[in-house]
Design a protein that fits this description.
Layout (H helix, E strand, L loop, with lengths): L1 H5 L4 E5 L14 H11 L5 E5 L5 H15 L4 E4 L15 H28 L7 E5 L12 H21 L5 E7 L5 H9 L20 H12 L10 E4 L6
Parallel strand pairs: 1-2, 3-4, 4-5, 5-6
Helix pairs in contact: 3-4, 4-5
Amino acid sequence: MLKLAEQGWSVLALDRGGPDPALPYPLGTADELAAVVDKARAHGPVVGRLADVRDRAALGAAVADAEQRWGGLDAAIAAAGVIAGGVPMWEVPVEEEDAVLDVDLRGVLNLARVAIPALLRRPEPRSGRFIAVASAAATRGLPMLAAYCAAKAGVAGLVRALGAELGGSGVTANAVSPGSTDTPILAESARLYGLPDAGRFGAQAPFGRLLDPDEIASVLAFLAGPDSSAMTGSVVAADGGLAL
């Protein structure tokens, strides 16, 4: 959100804004969303809304809000994600597995279903962008994170299919596959693996360090902008070489 606002975008940001009873760790709060929105507003029009990506109607209302406010939708980024596991797949509580699949994959499908028609409503020549956050887990098998790997692999497959379906419409579909990034979800991954801190993941990649969220945001902002016009159906690794 902040990176896009800094680059002159008008942004409507969505977050669940509260805990999920199916997951054993805290999610971002409404107050945290409001704080980020306030910071981003220093750069331009930014609006925050509470919505769950599993609620297609809420996503549709958010898209309609953006169209009404700013005359149309130019880019949609599916970035919501949760994680669960820490035990073999068949021992993961079903409600936790469902949360991972429903947020990390179905949530992307839900946004695509309501956002892509809005991108196509723009007059020709169009330059709409649909972008999703996948993961190095889309191609690298991670033990005790089977549902997460499956969901992220599904995201990669989805954007490839969307790239083909959108063809010469002027709208593109791409994904970013981050590696170990210094975020709360990585801290939860460390807990699931019984590690003392998330910094231990940094040694897995050639970079030898955790990635900063701003580094991933820069790739997302590039894909949202005009300089990515030659790309569609791409899954861009931004992982410090982890996939190598």
